[in-house]
Every structure is written in C-alpha cells, then in structure tokens.
Specification:
globular, Rossmann fold, Dihydrodipicolinate Reductase, domain 2, Alpha-Beta Plaits
Length: 442
Amino acid sequence: MSETPPSITIGLLGCGTVGTGILELIRRRQWHEYWVRVNRAFVRDPARPRLLPVPVECTDRVEQIVTDPDIDVVIDVLPDPGTAYGPVRQALENRKHVISANWQLLATHGDELEQFAREQGVAFLYEAAMTGSVPFAHIAQRWTRVSPIRAFLGIPHGVERLWGLPESRSDDGASESEQMMRFGIAPSARTEHEWERSVAWVILIGRWAAGTWISREHIRIRKNTPKDHRVIELARAHGYALCPAFLWEDHTTWQRALVEWMAVPDRCPLAHLSPYEAGLLVWYEDIGPQLYTGLGGGALPAAAAVLADLLRIVQRDWSFTRALSWHPHRDDQAQDAYFLVLHVAHQSDNIHACVTHLQDHAISVQHVHVNTHPASPGFEIVIVTERVPDATMRTVVHSLEKHPGVHTVDAFRIPDILTWSPERVYHKQWTPAEIAHAVSSG
Ligand SMILES: NC(=O)c1ccc[n+]([C@@H]2O[C@H](COP(=O)([O-])OP(=O)(O)OC[C@H]3O[C@@H](n4cnc5c(N)ncnc54)[C@H](OP(=O)(O)O)[C@@H]3O)[C@@H](O)[C@H]2O)c1
C-alpha cells in the first residue's frame, strides 16, 4: 500500500472544464476522503446551479481564496491573464503555492511570477499549460540536466491542421471535428488565436528545455499559409504534410524560435497526427529525437497534469532552474531544406529561369517536378532544395516573387531536426583512452 500524502487544502480559481476535471479526478481517486480538501472555487456566477463531482463552495469574492489562511495551494484555471494575474500574484504574496493551467498567463507574466514565487519560497508549477497538457515537461526537464535539448519541433493540437484543409472522414463517416468531439475536445475557431497559442507554447517549452523565458520579440512568426488547396495536395503527393508548427533551436553560435507553416516529411510521425493530437519532437543532444504525442487538452488530461504538479508540491519535489537570458535569433547561420511550389506562366523559359535563379544563389536542388496546372494555363514546379541559409532563401523567394513569369511562390521550411540522421548519435566516438592507444600503437 502506498503511503497517504499529508493532507492539503486547495482553492480553485475557476471551475469550468479543467476545474471540474480536477474535481472529477479527485473523486475517482477518492483523494477527498483522505488528504485533499477543496475549500472554495472562484467563479464568475456562483448562483448558477452546477453538478460538481465533489461538493465545493463557489464564490465570486476572490479574496476568500487568495487570503484564506487555510488554503495551501491555489490552482489557477481561469481563462486568461486579465482574470488571473491579480489573484495569482496575491496568492503568491500570501505565500501560497500556485499551479496554473493558464498558458496565456504564463506566456505573458510567467517570468515575473516565477521570479516572485522564488522570492516567496513557494512553488509555481504549470505542466498543464504546456503543449495542451501532453505530459512531457517534467520528464524533459530531468533529462535535459544530463543531455541538453538542442531543438524541438511542435505541432499544436491538431485543430490547426484543419485550416484550409478539406475534412477527412473516419471509417464510420465521422468528420475530423466530430472525432475530436468524441474525445471531449471542442474544435476552436480558426483564428489568430491559434498563432497566439503556438507562440505561448514556444515560450513555455523554452523555459523548461533551457531554463530560458523566450520573449515574444524573439519569436519570428510567418503566416505562410498555402495560397490554394492544390499546394497542400502537391505536398502530399511528394511525401510532405504541410502544417503550422513551432521550432526552437539552440546551437552554440546561434538560437532561433519560429512559428510558421512547415513541410513535415511523411516518414516523420508528426506528419500523421490526428486532428485532436498534439506532437512534440525533442532532440536531446546525446539521445537523438524523441517523440511525445497526446490528446493535447481536454478536461481530464489537463486536470491530470495539474494534480501531478500537486503531488510534486506535497513531495516537495519542486525546484527552479536558473533562468538564462535569451538572445534574439540569428537565422543567418541556421540552415534548413525547403519545399517550394512555383506557379509560372506557360513558357519553358520561366521554368529554366527559376531553376537558374536557385543555382545562382548556390542552392542545390534535391528534386524538381514540373506539372501542367489543371485549373489555369501555366506550370507548377515543385522543388525540394538541400539545406540553405535562412537569409539566402528569403532573398531568393522575394526575387522569385518579382519575376515577371512567376504567378505565385509557396515556400515551406523542412526543419533540420526532421532530416536528422541517427549517425549523429550512433556514429562511433573514440574515447580518450582509445585515441591514446591508437597513437601509441600506430
Ligand atoms: N480546456 C482545456 O483543454 C485546457 C487544457 C490546458 C489548459 N487550459 C487552460 O486552463 C484554463 C481554464 O480552461 P477551461 O477550459 O477550464 O475554461 P472554462 O471552461 O471557460 O472555465 C473558466 C472558469 O473561469 C471562471 N471565470 C471566467 N471569467 C471569470 C471572471 N471574470 N471572474 C471569475 N471567474 C471567472 C468561469 O466561471 P463560471 O463557471 O461562472 O463561468 C469558469 O469557472 C484556461 O486558461 C485554458 O487555457 C485548458
């Protein structure tokens, strides 16, 4: 029998989807009978009748939670920084541990609140806010002490992949949105908001991976949405999935953080995520890429991440890594391959000019394919390049766009982490003793 943890009293800031999920998990584990007491929940409308899995007093007076001396841990499951910042700050002032699932609060005030929690000597944990609660952050933080994270590529939970894509159907005819709803995930509106979430995820994961809070100004966002569906189809036909993704890389001489549509090769599992899954490919320097995927949100996954943090507080297993400063990215030294689709006027001269243009910038081409365009006169040229400096590719795309024979240019990065080779890890390294032996016997 495992030992019952010491009893603890929690107060909820918010009691909606995730808040109710927390109460449901407490009920399922019967923790409320032994060691967890949920004292109160701060909500907008306490008079609204609610069916809560564990009875909790609801209040619209936040001070009844953040100043209540009986409450040890405050859990923030409020919707945004506007509603949560003041109460969270007050809870920390009153030396309460705080757990937050509120990724927007973390992305905007995480640095300051974590620093303040450290000064107060209390925990400030937020696993539930990371990648929509795919449980990777705590494990990654431990691994990274041994083998640093050099890069990660993330695809936020798949609703974004529905953007501009015709909905595929499962065997029983359910649309992707319907499949998501079966898992309790409501498809969100496809708006700017999705990019905000990607930016927030880079900020949060950067914090865990490198002890660094990346600020918004250090993240380059490019909304290079495919100009028409045909580009998505062409990419599929050539073995690539186009998806909005976030990329973070930390090399010895340069760093970068990007949010944009990228081309993910079919052989990478990230190209096959369901619309309700989130995925993260983490490249540990000495281990190679590891893949984390999950449902990416919903009441119970997020609640489980919150309660895992609660256990860390009870076991006093929380510590702060030193926050390092983050320098603006230097993409002049970063290199990736590119997937390009050009739509050119009906003259072979134009095709020749485009390819020559790449060669003039010393860009090697892996693959070229030319089709006639089914809907209009002209040609589609699909080009996959070898690795090329970011800055060079930007110049090339701008000048191709100005070329009189070129109607449209779509350019998608194939990040280096996706073309990673196992030789980088499994390549035999000589130990110092072996080198000494080889020299002396040689
Ligand atoms: N849902 C997910 O899958 C998921 C996953 C990971 C992280 N998160 C994050 O977790 C947080 C909570 O998400 P959720 O889905 O549980 O949200 P939600 O269902 O909208 O619940 C929000 C709760 O906050 C309360 N609230 C809203 N505005 C308030 C105000 N001005 N004053 C007092 N209370 C207020 C609401 O009160 P009423 O009940 O009276 O309306 C409700 O109880 C968000 O920051 C979200 O981004 C969500």
